[in-house]
Specification:
The complex is a heterodimer of chains A (about 180) and B (about 60). With about 180 residues, chain A is mainly α. Helices cover about 75% and strands about 0% of the residues of chain A. In chain A, helix 2 (about 35-65) packs antiparallel against helix 3. The longest helix of chain A is centred in the N-terminal third of the chain and has 32 residues, at about 35-65. Chain B has about 60 residues and is mainly alpha-helical. The longest helix of chain B has 11 residues, at about 45-55. The chains are: A mainly alpha (about 180), B mainly alpha (about 60). The interface between A and B is medium-sized, with 10 and 17 residues.
Chain lengths: ~180, ~60
């Protein structure tokens, strides 16, 4: 428990340091136009329903089967990741994920860094066999899940970029 | 429905979508969505576009 708290504090300290650095470098000037805000509203709606559906599904599964397949913290974080992923994917596909004033390369780099570090920690946990204890997914699998989620987001951004480029080449959109 | 009047007014000013987007402080994709008829802009954005292109609301947005 003490190790978990120390880890949480460390992650918190790193997050604050990154936030301060980003603010100092001026990369936090996020600004979304009216179409982007509208698309984000739609994405929030779908993310909300995903969260609702997940909660109901997990609750009903537990009620009817009584099988505990993961610990409480992991179960909660899986729901957060699922709804976050839905939000991110809808926003990316509707060009509302990144501010039009935000440097795209920095966002890609930061996300790739986060994905790689989380997947790395996840692989370490997998190697140690910490992911499953007594037949239940443990909190140690969260890094793996967050890493996978970030990887899906990066891949979707790349795919959307490719689709946009193709449309530009086809003359449907001006570059 | 495509907004061809906006597209031609922009082209007449020799502006790209990106230049118009920068002038009215929106993303290039938003200008493209308006021209393609995929997005209905607010009156505030319509007015801003009209100011930049030197047109009236009727000329660009009234059907």
């Amino acid at each position: 428990m003490l190790g978990f708290l120390a880890g949480l504090l460390l992650v918190g300290a790193i997050a604050v340091a990154i936030a301060l650095l980003v603010k100092k470098l001026g990369y936090n000037k996020r600004e979304y136009d009216e179409r982007q805000k509208m698309a984000q509203g739609t994405a929030y709606k779908y993310a909300f329903f995903t969260s609702l559906g997940y909660g109901c599904l997990v609750g009903l599964f537990d009620l009817f089967t009584g099988i505990r397949w993961c610990d409480t913290m992991t179960c909660m974080l899986l729901g957060v990741c699922a709804s976050t992923l839905v939000f991110a994917l809808i926003c990316i596909w509707r060009d509302a994920y990144m501010s039009f004033k935000q440097p795209k390369r920095t966002v890609y780099l930061l996300m790739a860094l986060l994905a790689l570090s989380n997947l790395g920690i996840g692989c370490m946990n997998l190697g140690r066999g910490d992911l499953i204890e007594n037949g239940m997914l443990t909190f140690h699998c969260v890094n793996f899940i967050v890493g996978a989620m970030l990887l899906i987001i990066i891949l979707t951004m790349a795919l959307k970029g490719a689709v946009d480029r193709r449309r530009e080449n086809d003359g449907q959109v001006e570059g | 429905m495509k907004n061809l009047r906006l597209k031609s007014a922009r082209a007449a000013m020799d502006m790209s979508q990106q230049q118009l987007a920068d002038a009215v402080n929106v993303s290039r994709q938003t200008i493209n969505a308006i021209e393609m008829g995929d997005y209905n802009p607010t009156i505030k954005l319509c007015v801003a576009i009209c100011h930049v292109l030197g047109k009236t609301l009727d000329e660009l947005f009234w059907e």
